[in-house]
Design a protein that fits this description.
CATH class of the largest domain: Alpha Beta
Largest sheet: 7 strands, mixed
Number of strands: 27
Shape: elongated
Number of domains: 6
Oligomer: single chain
Distance between the termini: 70 Å
Low-confidence stretches: 658-663, 810-828
Helix content: 40-55%
Structural class: alpha/beta
Mean pLDDT: 88
Radius of gyration: 37 Å
CATH architecture of the largest domain: 3-Layer(aba) Sandwich
CATH topology of the largest domain: Rossmann fold
CATH superfamily of the largest domain: P-loop containing nucleotide triphosphate hydrolases
Number of helices: 32
């Protein structure tokens, strides 16, 4: 870099100095009407964006690679780069071109995937979080921020497992961490991450920075005073974000403690298997979000996502939401919906105002949205519903903000402030005068025209103005001989001649100056309005929050009415009871009538579920979890009745997949997920175990499944839905009073299998696997061979039983002692029997059981 600087031009030296400060970030360097990139940045971006790679001069005889994008289209290119996980440093020109030999350029902003707020770049329907991790002596400190909403939280985690839970809940786009932090596996899937020097995480520095940001002397009022490691993370994160924006973060007014004990925890595995935010292909279609996201504003859609991954445990807060949903169900909420669908993204607009980066359209949308608030308040007030009338009191119409924006901003302002035509007529006298001079108003033209007619006696003389020729005098060719000497011909047309005069030329120059001054003045006035709005940020933020909540709950009411949902009853009891429950997603996407099923988990808090493949076991399990989640976010549920008690976390062990990149087999993944459940589930957890033990041999798999099920029902005592094809598991109901068997059945009709999809008490051993294979389209040859194989095995088993009986009879009639196969094994290997006697089944973990099986097998 130093060698390049020695031979660089002044302009390129500026670039290289800036690039040296941001070696791992793309630098977009403003040159006239383009943002240019040089050297390796140019090569990289040319490839990523399919741009033409050119050159600009040379350095030490080597051509300098260059690629660029037009300044007016830069947002589109930045958006594409951000989606690829890249970060961009924006360097703007300072001063007036030509006024100085070398144009000065400075960094105006750093746009990273986690700090982007610009419309068209930041995803509309998803929060963008940047998180920061700090490892202290006793705890992990975690902080995260959303510049788009102003949300700022911190916490501490005693274990790596708990920290991972927070990260999976937040799903940050970008991670910042101390450069000495070694546990990168926590966030290795996050592409955008940045290591900071240790000095960024000093407690005293972070504490002072946070107090300065919030205008306080301490952090007691935010309930984070005792979170030392959390403060270290929050301080480092705030400093990092402030550096990217290069302006004060006016809308970041507070910070709060994030406490997972307030929520029903859903780790990444549960979110994926239950298809909360997306289906297994990563698409929204077929997810719970696709059913419940009926919000009409972008900010409401983002809140819906947040609520789905943070179901509440506080019944009072949930019932407040349910009261509003019920009130909206009992009202004609079509009026409310009409207002909501016209309200813009106030939350993101407020953020851009706080960052001094709002655009003319933002203020126009804010004004027009606020004008709809009185109608919304009127609906709430006149609804006659107590919950809605109470909600109305929280909605501030902000009439003073509406008045300011109405007087200051044009109805349809220009897209870009640099183009002018943003400030409303009548807001500023100087601007009005400049515009009149600049546009050549009709009154001014008529005055000049009248004076020239009187001077020349030319009756056809007209004075006009256009953007190409400026001011000009137009005379018909028939009277062109009468023009005085001081008229200068500018243009000849078929029937007319056009002239200018020194006076008109002077006026034109004033108009050009007026254009420059008007643009300068509009910029000043716009930012003055923006500054006034920054004084109202707390009120605007509160309004955006309450409108978002109204939007979400109105969406819940819409789906509740159309889906014939019922209000759930909540309690702190140890119970989940659902009468005639339905799967909210399958019910909506299927054309066939959905078969409802009931469930009760109380005294019998483990259900062992058996039945054929495709018979409804997994659907039954998932709908129980989904209805629990829906109830705890404050939505009505698809059932005739639902009583949802205290649930602290939902675990899932569903499906089979390997992790080849980490060298983990399907069975290892299965065992790790099972281990996580066993080690972290509590009595208030809901556990879904779907056919565990399939990834290994039948005997070992069934032994492990039995051990895991036994441990859950005898040691953990959590709510458990355990589906299996192993008949041994169903026998637990004979031993444990808290276990109940549920089965799904099928029948054959006209040679085809018919699934009944109804949950019945009891167990079912026949899986109908061959019939399912037939339905899947397997060739008839394979189906026939499979049936024949089963028949042969069953005949062989019958013959073996018969031979066993003959041998037993023969042995009993002889003088020799009867020795069974099992006895022979233990006779040959007496230590195996001794080992088995020593086993304490009540303390045996699944992993220990697997290891023990291998040891016993090796001894035989």
């Amino acid at each position: 870099m130093e060698e390049l600087m020695q031979n660089a031009t002044p302009m390129m030296r500026q670039y290289l100095e800036i690039k040296a400060q941001y070696p791992n970030t793309l630098v977009l360097y403003r040159l006239g009407d383009f943002y240019e990139l040089f050297y390796e940045d140019a090569k990289k971006v040319a490839k990523l964006l399919d741009l033409t790679l050119t050159r600009r001069g040379s350095n030490n005889g080597d051509p300098i690679p260059m690629a660029g994008v037009p300044f007016h289209a830069v947002d589109n290119y930045i958006a594409r780069l951000i989606k690829m996980g890249e970060s961009c440093v924006i360097c703007e020109q300072q001063g007036t071109p030509g006024a100085q030999k070398t144009m000065i350029r400075k960094v105006s902003k750093i746009i990273t995937p986690g700090t982007v707020t610009e419309e068209g770049i930041a995803p509309d329907r998803q929060d963008v979080f940047t998180a920061c991790i700090y490892k202290g002596k006793h705890y992990y400190g975690l902080a995260y921020i959303s510049l788009g909403s102003g949300l700022f939280k911190t916490t501490i985690c005693p274990t790596k497992t708990e920290l991972k839970l927070y990260i999976e809940k937040i799903s940050p786009i970008e991670i910042v961490y101390e450069e000495n932090f070694k546990e990168i596996d926590l966030f290795e899937e996050i592409h955008s991450r940045k290591a900071l020097a240790p000095w960024n995480f000093k407690f005293e520095t972070g504490y002072k920075l946070l107090c300065s940001q919030f205008g306080t002397n301490s952090l007691f009022g935010f309930d984070i005073e005792n979170l030392e490691d959390g403060i270290c993370a929050a301080g480092a994160l705030l400093a990092y974000v402030k550096n990217t924006q290069n302006v004060p973060l006016e809308h970041i007014k507070s910070i709060s403690r994030d406490d997972n004990s307030e929520f029903v925890l859903l780790d990444h595995c549960a979110q994926r298997n239950l298809e909360i935010l997306s289906n297994l292909k990563g698409e929204k279609q077929g997810s719970l979000l696709s059913v419940l996201d009926n919000a009409l504003t972008p900010m409401g859609q983002r809140l819906t996502r947040r609520m789905l991954v943070e179901p509440l445990r506080n019944n009072d807060l949930i019932n407040q939401r349910l009261d509003i949903v019920e009130a909206l169900c009992n009202s004609d909420n079509e009026i409310l919906s009409q207002s909501l669908e016209r309200i813009g993204d106030i939350e993101r607009i407020v953020a851009r105002i706080g960052l001094s980066s709002s655009k003319p359209k933002d203020l126009a949308v804010l004004r027009d949205s606020l004008k709809l608030v009185p109608d919304l308040k009127n609906f709430l007030l006149k609804s006659g519903q107590k919950a809605l009338i109470s909600l109305n009191e929280k909605v501030d119409p902000l009439f003073d903000v509406v008045a300011l924006l109405t007087s200051a901003i044009k109805d349809f302002p220009s897209t870009f402030l640099r183009d002018g035509d943003v400030i409303a007529q009548g807001y500023n006298e100087e601007l009005d005068s400049l515009r009149e001079l600049m546009s050549g108003s009709q009154e001014l033209l008529l005055k000049i025209e009248q004076e020239e007619r009187e001077k020349t006696g030319i009756t056809t003389l007209k004075v006009n103005f256009n953007s190409v020729h400026g001011f000009y005098i137009e005379v018909s060719k028939a009277q062109s001989e009468k023009v005085p000497d001081y008229y200068i011909r500018r243009q000849t047309l078929k029937n007319n001649e056009r002239y200018i005069t020194p006076a008109l030329k002077e006026l034109e120059q004033k108009a050009v100056s007026a254009k420059e001054r008007s643009l300068e003045l509009e910029d000043e006035l716009f930012h003055a309005v923006e500054h006034e709005l920054q004084q109202k940020l707390p009120e605007l933020t509160r309004l955006s929050q309450v409108l978002s909540l109204i939007d979400v709950l109105n969406g819940f009411a819409v789906v509740s009415k159309s889906g014939n949902y019922v209000r759930p009853q909540l309690s702190n009891e140890h119970i989940i009871k659902i009468v005639d429950g339905r799967h909210p997603v399958i019910e909506k996407i299927t054309d066939k009538p959905f078969v409802s099923n009931s469930i009760e988990l109380k005294d019998k808090h483990m259900l062992v579920i058996t039945g054929p493949n495709m018979g409804g076991k997994s659907t039954y399990m998932r709908q129980t979890a989904l209805i629990t989640i829906m109830a705890r976010i404050g939505c009505f549920v698809p059932a005739k009745e639902a009583h949802i008690g205290n649930v602290d976390r939902i675990f899932t062990r569903i499906g089979a997949s390997d992790d080849l990149s980490s060298g983990r087999s399907t069975f290892m993944v299965e065992m790790e997920e099972a281990s996580s459940i066993i080690n972290n589930a509590t009595v208030n957890s809901l556990v879904l175990m779907d056919e565990i033990g399939r990834g290994t041999s039948t005997y070992e798999g069934s032994a492990l499944a039995l051990s895991i099920a036994q441990y859950l029902c005898s040691k953990v005592n959590c709510f458990t839905l355990f589906s299996t094809h192993y008949p041994e598991i169903a026998s637990l109901a004979d031993t444990y009073s808290n276990v109940k068997n549920i089965c799904f059945k099928a029948t054959e009709f006209d040679g085809s299998i018919v699934f009944l999809y109804k949950a019945n008490e009891g167990s079912q051993n026949y899986s109908y696997a061959i019939e399912v294979g037939k339905l899947a389209g397997l060739p008839s040859e394979i189906i026939s061979y499979a049936k024949k194989t089963i028949e042969n095995k069953e005949q062989g088993k019958a013959l073996k039983n018969q031979n066993s009986k003959i041998n037993t009879d023969s042995a009993s009639s002889s003088d020799s002692p009867c020795v069974t196969v099992k006895e022979k094994i233990f006779y040959k290997e007496p230590e195996v029997l001794e080992d088995l006697r020593k086993i304490d089944l009540n303390t045996l973990t699944p992993i220990a059981a697997l290891n023990l099986l291998f040891e016993l097998k090796n001894k035989i």
